[in-house]
Amino acid sequence: MDIEAGTTVAALQAGLPLEALENRILLCHALGLSRVGLITQSERTITDAEAAALEALVERRLQGEPIAYIVGRREFFGLDFRVTDAVLIPRPDTELLVELALERLPPQGRVLDMGAGSGAIAVAVAHTRRDAQVSALDVSPAALDVARQNAASNGARVRFVQSDWFAAIEGERFDMVVSNPPYIAEGDIHLSQGDLRFEPAGALTDHADGLSALRIIIAGAPAHIEPGGWLLMEHGYDQAAQVRDLLAEQGYVDVASWRDLAGIERVTGGRAP
Asked: Which intervals hold domain Release factor glutamine methyltransferase N-terminal (predicted)?
């Protein structure tokens, strides 16, 4: 679409070919305005440079690129996170995992986040529970770079470790392990739809049946969790029963699943034997 200099902010809000929320986000980003500024400067006209910048952003969105990657930010658990195409975009569904972890983490508890990505889970826990000792691992150096930046910008104390699952933390033990691992099965149609087309495939799918990463975590966690400590994992909308079975087979107790705001069993966990 063609965006012309001299157009008012109000006209752009009404006329951009995106959803109202996306219009506001891209306008704020392109024009350097706050949400309040969109209202107080509604009759302001845009310059040639602003028109070109906004047009480029809108075109990227029309091509399907996620808003979070376009503006480089996403809110999660009330905090502001930097995101790049090296990490998954934090989603509201995952806030359930953070809430469950916070409810179960003992005072001065040690918690490990496996597959940190942007650091959303680890940073949210560390920011909320200043007494906790939070560690987070990821196999991707690029993801860890983003996560470290997010911990610093949110004033959260997190130790980050590059590791292929448990490989680099031999002998370490925690009061809790949490994870949002790759759980989409190879060939799942969702991988070719929407935002998922732009997100790192290795953080979405295990290139197998969707359960292989969950199996690795469930089998390996008892060697790293204090007896009675919790393992909590996010998983796919149809995997809860299978994950409960995997936990039970490994001897975990108090195995349960919890539903997200959409009523979907989104997190399953149990206490280490």
From this structure: 13-72
Confirm whether residue 153 is marked as ligand binding: no
13, 203, 213, 214, 216 from 140: Cα distances, Å: 39, 10, 15, 18, 18
Q: Where are the beta strands (DSSP E) in 133-224?
A: 133-138, 158-162, 174-179
DSSP H stretches of helix in 117-239: 120-128, 141-153, 201-204, 212-220
| Topology annotation, domain 84-271 | Rossmann fold (3.40.50)
- By the 10 Å C-beta count (0-12 exposed, 13-18 middle, 19+ buried), 17 is classed as exposed
Amino acid letter for position 214: L
145 belongs to an annotated ligand binding site: no
The reply to whether 227 sits in an annotated binding site is no
In whole angstroms, give the CA distance from residue 83 to residue 70. 9
Q: Is the pLDDT of residue 242 over 80?
A: yes
Give the pLDDT confidence of 177-204 residue by residue, as tens digits. Answer: 999 999 998 888 988 898 899 999 989 9
118 is in an annotated binding site: yes
42 assigned to a ligand binding site: no
141 annotated among ligand-binding-site residues: no
Task: Please tell me whether 106 is known to bind a ligand.
Answer: no
Give the residue from 70, 106, 107, 108 showing the smallest Cα distance to 89.
Answer: 70
